[in-house]
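ingest -> fold -> write
write: protein_1
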Amino acid sequence: MSTTLEKGHTINFYQATAPIIISVFAVYLTIGIALGVLPGFVQNTLGFNSIIVGLVIGLQSLSTLLTRAYSGKITDTRGAKRSKMSGVVLAVIAGVIYVLAVLFQAHPLLALSFLLLARIIHGIGESFLVTGALTWGIGLVGHSSSGKVMTWNGIAMYAGIAIGAPVSIWLSKEYDMLPAFLLIAFLPLVSWISTAKLPSVPVDKDHVRTPFYKVIGAISGQGLSLAFSSMAFGCIASFIALFFSQKNWGDASLAFMIFGACYVLTRIFFASFPDKYGGFTIALISLVIEVAGQILIWTSASKTLAIVGCGLTGVGFSLIFPALGVLAIQKVKPQMRGTALGAYVAFVDLSLGLAGPIAGLIAGWFDYQAVYLFGGISCMIAMIILLYNKK
């Protein structure tokens, strides 16, 4: 196979996407590892409050958000492969800085500074990785399979988070924090190796680019609905571990695993539903299920009910991204696909970046359980936006 595809040429779907899926999974394992250990490290080891926990968690998504436009531009003008590989390098750098934070934990402010820097770099790396990976995959297999590309990359993303979080919790209990953060530095190497020989896709350098703000405007309906629906995931990622600790229910590993398993299984068995029944219908049903999951966590009187609520949230959240995403990229020309995907995923970044600090404030004012009422209300707002933008 040549190193560069000829224009219009496609290759076998799994031959093209499997290396990219492995690559995305490896980097998202690092994101899951960070989510699993950072809340406890910041609060229990360094001694900071829940608001700082929310800031540390949310900063990665905010930095990802602020670099989406640039990563989309690089992807469209210099190639998806280059964008994705840049994200891998940044993930390695972030891992090294996480390790420095652990080594300097005796100096809380210095360690916190390292963590904040690591979160920023980790977020920028995620921006380049996801935009590059999605654009690369769609470019290799063709626009008609864009929904499947987004579905399988989403599986890799959230499976990585769901597996990485409990693995890091176990490692921190058995061997302290350092091994978990060392993994963050080394796992991106798997990402690099998996796609090193995958062919690139051609870049149309003569295309007149649409301004990013116009792309944002074109997909804003789907993007805002996605953003509010993602708040629920942000609430689970940021505070489910501390919620379980507050309730004396033990660690939250099973909650992370059930969320991830339900998310992945829903995508595997129902991946064709957005194409078969329509993105609007599937997104609406998914949001109803997601609301139910968040309300169940909010009202849960036992660990079992809270875990079931996490599972329902995973089922509901699973198909929202591909259902709305296919509609979003249809609004732009193929040469602007990277920018459109960057803009679309930016709404998730905005959501997760805000979810952590807002949920931290709510937890400080009330308790960790109240965070999930906020998650449920956010999903209801997503439903309203979806209904308003129905066409």
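write: protein_2
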Amino acid sequence: MPELPEVETTRRGIEPWLHGAKVTSLSVHNRQLRWPVPDDIQELVGQRVSGVSRRAKYLLIHSPPGNAIVHLGMSGSLRVLEHDEPLRKHDHVEMTLNNGCTLRYHDPRRFGCWLWQPQDQSVHPRLAALGPEPFDDAFSATRLYERSRGIKSPIKSFIMNNATVVGVGNIYASESLFRAGVRPGRAAGSLTRPQCEAVHACVVEVLQAAIQQGGTTLRDFVNSDGEPGYFAQSLAVYGRAGEDCSQCGEPIQTRTIAQRSTFWCRRCQR
């Protein structure tokens, strides 16, 4: 599924086209996404988009009466197209703008969402329990170390928990722990302070690198231009079970942690 770098790549792709444009119509071709698309999403019509931001893996399309909250789910994508571009199967929502463009939401599996947050509602319930952003000062090595004390669950599960830090999905958790030299199955509470510092630094580095390279190519992900991301070319362990480790030559291992495929090198990660 699209992870934080893919969502941020999408935000950067659509924001220049949406910012300052007026929404002339909003067509919902299929309301039955992860949650039904609410009728009050139509409050966007006639409004100018004041910006597009990201919170965790959610995109927020801002307007004076409120914000549309968009999640790409497992297979969703947003593309900016010309008005007369033919509708495709699984194009569920489209927002037409007065600048000649249409923002179209495509989602074959329909696990994503379009929700509405009125301006007088400070925090939407879907956003209320989210932890710090990985690039904010609130996410620090000290916080990671202190919150992990006494935690027996694997460090991979711990950094994928949105209460710890948002946006670290399965791919980037494996990649970050490889760079940090920490085995993903280790109990979070067993990590030393220097190891927590390494994990923190590598989470930030990996996510930043993935954003710069346009996200990771998965079978379902395309960015706002319809092109896949390129960070997959830089993946060190994810999806490489049985292949030689780029650092030591040891075969990459795989196992399931918290129902997710996990990849690591048993020589480089302790």
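write: annotation protein_2
The mean pLDDT is 92.
The first helix runs from residue 4 to 18.
pipeline exit 0
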